Amino acid sequence: MNKTAVVVLAAGKGARMKSEKAKVLHEIGGKPLLSYVIKASKELGTDKTIVVVGHQSETVKEAFPGKDVVFVEQKEQLGTGHAVMQAENALRGFKGNILILSGDVPLITADTLKGLMGLHVKSRATITVLTAEPEKPYGYGRIIKDAKGDIKKIVEEKDATAAEKKVREINAGIYCVASEFLFKAMRGIKPKNAQKEYYLTDIVGMAVKEKKKAATHKTADFKEVMGINSRLELAEAELIQRTRILNEMMKNGVTIIDPACTYIAQSVKISADTIVFPGSMISGETVIGKGTVIGPGCIISDAKIGDGVNIKAYSVIDKSEIEDGAFIGPMAHVRPESVIKKGAHIGNFVEVKKSKIGEGSKANHLSYIGDATIGKGVNIGAGTITCNYDGVKKHRTVIEDNVFVGSDTQLVAPVRIGEGSLIGAGTTVTEDVPEGSLVLSRVRQLTKEGLAKKYLRRKG
Ligand code: UD1
Ligand code: CA
Questions:
Q1: Overall average pLDDT of the 260-274 stretch
Q2: How many CA atoms lie within 13 A of 183 on its CB side?
Q3: Cα→Cα distances 63→58, 311, 329, Å
């Protein structure tokens, strides 16, 4: 088998994105465009992957640490041909086929690339171009063929004649080229075109002139090779990628009530029999167990969620762990570094931050629980607040097992409530409480019978 090296072109600015950010770092399915191309190339098990970076090269490199790829720099972005030239040094001594990919063609699959490489080898071609036939070919380079149907050259939209513009077969920007031809041909490219750029596409015409075999491999699915040049195309690709992710999840037994308005990132893992209601966004390294119900409208990122969990409407969970059988929401906010243990309940308008809520414990209504460790079987009454911040530092609250905290309690941290204690409603706890204590701090009630009418009369 011939050796294959991959060169990914990712140096362009992407002017049509109108963005401060390098185009290949724009995301679909929660991941940068370039990551999909690198992933597809890795799946092929090729010998070497070189990524040509230029515009914001440092930021692009930083986004892919330790991804065993070689980065080479294109200092000035003078065109796709010029970009490939920058990889020559890194490929010195390499003999075989070079697969050229575009960093802005993210939906390409390893299967299609295998098809392209297979045809290239089988037909003993010097260059094989991946093509497609979209409904609207506008903006793409067109594949110009001779009477026999063999490729003659590629013409860019901006250089095409009216007749050439009518051709629907387009250049996907993905090629398999024999290494010895590629770098030799590259030196012959001239920036003589509408954009005054060194076009990689010119090497097709050069191969044909030198009577070398040039082939095309047409994919049936244009979606796979669509290039992202604008925000509009980014949104189109997002939809395609999202559909792919959701289809895969549904195939694995996850119920997605309405795929049109459910957003799940590629990196998320969900087990069978979990149901995701519309409007939910699940991202990052989130892992969700089986038989869990999520949404509608939940936002979950980098969370570990167990089996049989119920996350009700409009809850937000970030970098936290929710164990089996827990109930969250509706409208709960679980902030980073929280652990909600088995069967615990976090109800509506409850915010939890950097806290552990023990097994079977409940905070069902309108509470703030920050920097707290709460034991098992604890009941946190409505409106309870941990006063964790003294204006300078954060302090911890510890509530031991089976404590009952009455409604509207303030726990002024640092403070510890001993096991089995009972805190009366409206108490402000400022000192540690030994186990089994009853704590009350409210003012005794004053009732004056009949005084209401007198008071109202005076006002009137
Ligand atoms: C290119 C092709 C076109 C094809 C289309 C497919 C050329 C001349 N044209 O056009 O035939 O139909 O892709 O999507 O090749 N890049 C660099 N350095 C540069 C210029 C570009 O690394 O100096 C990179 C870009 O970051 C991008 C890729 O090359 O990832 C393609 O460049 P782009 O400017 O988007 O080319 P298109 O006009 O789309
Ligand atoms: Ca492009």
A1: 96
A2: 17
A3: 9, 32, 35
Tokens of residue 402, six digits: 């089976």
pLDDT band at 1 (very low <50, low <70, confident <90, very high): low
Measured in angstroms, how far is the CA atom of residue 363 from the centroid of ligand 1? 55
pLDDT value for 337: 98
Options 3.90.550.10, 3.30.56.10, 3.40.5.50, 3.60.70.12; CATH for 4-225 is 3.90.550.10
The closest-lying atom of ligand 1 relative to the alpha carbon of residue 9 is: 22
For 336-385, what is each residue's pLDDT tens digit? Answer: 999 999 999 999 999 999 999 999 999 999 999 999 999 999 999 999 99
Return the domain boundaries, the chain: 4-225
What share of the chain has pLDDT > 70, as a percent? 100
Which ligand sits nearest to residue 15's alpha carbon?
Answer: 1
pTM for this entry: 0.87
* Ligand 1: lining residues by beta carbon, under 6 Å: 9-12, 52, 54, 74, 77-80, 82-83, 102-105, 140-141, 154, 156, 170-173, 199-201, 227, 229
Secondary structure E strands in 110-226: 127-132, 142-145, 151-155, 170-178, 214-218
